Amino acid sequence: MHFALPPRKSSHPAPYARAGARSSAHRQRQQRVRMRVLVLFGLGACCVLFLLARLVALPSSVSLWSSASAGSEGGRRRRPAPPGTAPVVIVTVLDDSRFSREHLDGIRRNREQYAAAHGYQTFLAHAKDYELRGAPSSWARVPALRHALATHPHTPLFFQLDAGAVIGNGSLALETHIMAPARLAQLMLKDVPVVPPDSVIRTFSHLKPAQVDLVLSQDATGLAPASLLLRQGEWARFFLDTWFDPIYRSYNFQKAEVHALEHIVQWHSTILAKLALVPPRTMFAAHTTPDANADADDREAPFRYQPGDFVLHPAACKAVPDPQCEAELRPFLEKAEKSAGTGGGVVTGGGGGEGKKYLM
Question: Can you give the pTM of this predicted structure?
């Protein structure tokens, strides 16, 4: 017998009829959350273990520059250099358009003698080897220094010295004379005008030797890049690339790369933050003849060369060729060569007078 309608469902379903399905979905969500937490925790633990392993292995994979070593950076970590790597490379651009062959040969010997005395290497480049695109040949010092950094990637310190300058006191090593942290801390001029006498931009007063990558001196009119110390590293390459920017080379500064350097130092804090200025005659002394009629306020007096100074650079030896430059340098080159040949290292003066050794 068939019913006309299906049987009615009960109006009183069993309590918690679907509780099992809801509970299963809830448990699955909880399991997924727990799995995510465990995965994240595991990744975090792996990262911590990886960092700890790197820290434990650090002393065996990198070396620290000692405070007395060349180019010491106050504890900066560097990869160990291959055996035989020189602590300093001396960079000089030989410019046939500015100097005679005889003079350049003398400059070459001057650099090689000083390098041999202290275990350094020389990097003697030619201005014509670099494409300057119409800029004055004095700009070649910038790509030459960049070239030297690439050629000697493990050398920590580079000493760029103009071909119109002579190392007069070969007994002074750059490590102890300037770059040792304690010595550099003593020499650094803080809160002084970058471009004398009254630049509104001043050197940082809180700068530490470990933060310094560029060391310069000044003459009576501005910065003196004829003698320059630069530490190897990414910042050094950035600095040189900025200095050599085509916009500066084409701007027609009155003093070419010198005024370009003064511009970027004063208006780019990333460069000023790495710069240390040292007192006059520490690494650059201008060889000028005192004016008998000059008044007591002689601006050039603090920068003027005195016997025993490290480097001398005649005022005539600027970017523009001047025969007087070689005439002034010739006696100093001869005396420096003679001193090196006899084991000495101090040039006492171009006129042959005896002068006492002077260290700043």
Answer: 0.73
